[in-house]
Write a structure and sequence with these properties.
By secondary structure, the chain is an alpha+beta fold. The chain has six helices and four strands; from the N terminus they run H-E-H-H-E-H-H-H-E-E. The protein has helices at residues 17-23, 45-48, 58-70, 87-96, 105-110, 127-130, and strands at residues 32-37, 79-81, 145-151, 155-160. The chain is globular and about 50 Å long. The relative contact order is 0.22.
């Protein structure tokens, strides 16, 4: 399983709360948005895994900074959309983003933790393979969410809303 590169587009209108109130009854407040670049540019493996000097990955650094700016920890999240270019990426993202300890990402799936009705629903949109609106998979009552993306050259972005 791997998501092939493709083209797409998205748009967001950023404005203050006063302006947002004119256009929507459901504005999304961005609590933090962080971009980091991996110290190692060779594909994903060295970017995700601990370096020989035990430096954190770009994912862990971005997540830690995003949590700090937002004034929250992973336990405060109600929903997450994480990079899942392949099945392993999603599991490792759980670990790098602080959802669990290293080596325990698979257990989150086995225990139903990341299911739509689990403690932390992940990728209810269907993930990168089928990216779309959540529809019936929409999670009710979400107050705080996290979006994670990883791209070529070791670029990682975390947004908490």
């Amino acid at each position: 399983m791997i998501c092939s590169p493709n083209e797409g587009a998205a748009a967001a209108i950023l404005c203050n709360e006063k302006v947002a109130d004119k256009y929507t009854r459901k504005p999304v407040k961005i609590l933090s948005c962080v971009h980091k670049v991996s110290r190692f540019s060779v594909l994903q493996v060295p970017s995700y895994c601990a370096s020989p000097t035990n430096n954190p990955s770009a994912h862990a650094e971005a997540a830690q900074e995003a949590y700090k700016i937002a004034g929250i920890s992973p336990e405060h999240l109600d929903l997450a959309e994480v990079q899942d270019t392949d099945a392993f990426c999603e599991i490792e993202a759980y670990e790098e983003l602080g959802f669990c300890r290293k080596g325990e990402g698979g257990k989150l799936i086995e225990e139903g933790y990341t299911e739509r009705d689990g403690k932390l629903p992940v990728n209810v949109s269907g993930g990168l393979i089928c990216k779309g609106e959540a529809g019936e998979r929409q999670v009710k009552g979400v107050k705080v969410g996290l979006a994670h993306v990883y791209g070529s050259g070791g670029h990682c972005g975390i947004t908490i809303w």
